[in-house]
Amino acid sequence: MMKVVTIFPTLIIINELDNFKEVENDLIDFTYEERSKDNKGVSVSNIGGWHSKPHYSSYENILSSVILQGINKTLGSSSVFKSNTTIKILNLWININQKGNLNSKHLHPRSDLSGVFWIKAPKNSGNLRLYSPHTYDHAAQIQYFSEDFKNKAQIKASYEINPSAGSLILFPSSIYHDVAISRSDEDRISCAFNIKIS
Ligand SMILES: [Fe+2]
After folding, report:
1. From ligand 1's centre to the CA of 10, what distance in Å?
2. Checking DSSP bridges between strand 177-179 and strand 128-131, what pairing results, if any?
């Protein structure tokens, strides 16, 4: 009897924050206030747009408390991690992208898990694309796999997430990712973070 086994999966956890509506406006106000204090921001993976300094996990503010609560709820209800697992947010930053802005392909070194939380995600404001860590290994054989097998085994070069406000995603920090160009007239606001688990 023949069997096909697919191994070495990649962890992607996606969750909707249930209390998002209650904090949505305060979070939006907070991000714009922060931008007004430091219009220049920093230049990292962002092509255009405003990328804040990654300091929001180092003091108490609405963003860090919503994110910490969101991560803990997500991990607590996911059954992925052992119940005594603890997390530490290493850094946390805000991105405000406007029409024509994007984030180029990058990964987050010196961290275990990374995440994105969307505060404002209008239509066509840029999907998050995560790239397979197996692309090089699969490159030769993947072109001969049937569509049916690829779909069943989730074998793909990249995985796209069409974001919605209030969603939170966690993924291994070693996974390359980018954000597609925004085609929206409205701002796209997200925050991103790195986590150490122990
Ligand atoms: Fe990133």
Report:
1. 17
2. antiparallel
Q: CA nearest 128: which of 91, 174, 176, 89?
A: 176
Residue recorded with tokens 């206030």: 33
Q: Which two tokens stand for residue 88?
A: 């530490």
Whole-angstrom distance, CA of residue 198 vs CA of residue 192: 20
- 109 C-alpha to center of ligand 1: Å? 10
pLDDT (tens digit per residue) in 65-75: 999 999 999 99
The CA distances from residue 17 to 77, 87, 151, 166, in Å, are 12, 18, 28, 5
Rounded distance between C-alpha atoms, residue 145 and residue 32, angstroms: 47
3-state SS class at 120: strand
Report pLDDT digits (tens) over 138-177. Answer: 888 888 999 999 999 999 899 999 999 999 999 999 999 9
In order of their start, the domains of the chain are 13-197 (2.60.120.620)
